[in-house]
Amino acid sequence: MSTESLNRTSVEIENPSQNIEASQRVNVDVLKQRLLEEKKKEKVKRTIIVSSVVASLGVLTFLTY
Predict the structure, then answer these.
(1) Residue-level pLDDT at 1
(2) In whole angstroms, what is the distance from residue 48 CA to residue 42 CA?
(3) How distant is the alpha carbon of residue 46 from its chain centre?
(4) pLDDT in tens, 13-40
(5) Mean pLDDT across the chain, nearest whole number?
(6) Diameter over CA atoms, the chain
(7) Which is nearest to 51 in space by CA: 43, 40, 41?
């Protein structure tokens, strides 16, 4: 009975490790695409912030005269 349980656990341990090795492949093109998308989002955020600052300064100068 003890040898059966040992054999069963050794088989269960081997199977997950094989699945982990197969899933460790990384597609570089996908990572590059994600990086480009993040950069685009950051650029849009930066543009919105700068334009809002410039617009608010323009409004303040217009109101002071």
Answers:
(1) 52
(2) 10
(3) 20
(4) 555 555 555 567 889 999 999 999 999 9
(5) 81
(6) 94
(7) 43
List the domain range (segments joined by +) for residue 27.
Answer: 2-64
Whole-angstrom Cα Rg for the chain: 29
Say how many CA atoms lie within 13 Å of 61 toward its Cβ: 6
3 state SS of 24: coil
pTM, full prediction = 0.54
Q: What are all long-range contacts of 16-23, with beta carbons under 8 Å and residues at least 24 apart?
A: none
Please give the Cα distance from 55 to 49 (Å, whole number): 10
Number of structural domains in the chain: 1
The SS3 call for residue 50 is helix
Exposure string (b/e) for 1-21, b if CB count within 10 Å is 16 or more?
eeeeeeeeeeeeeeeeeeeee
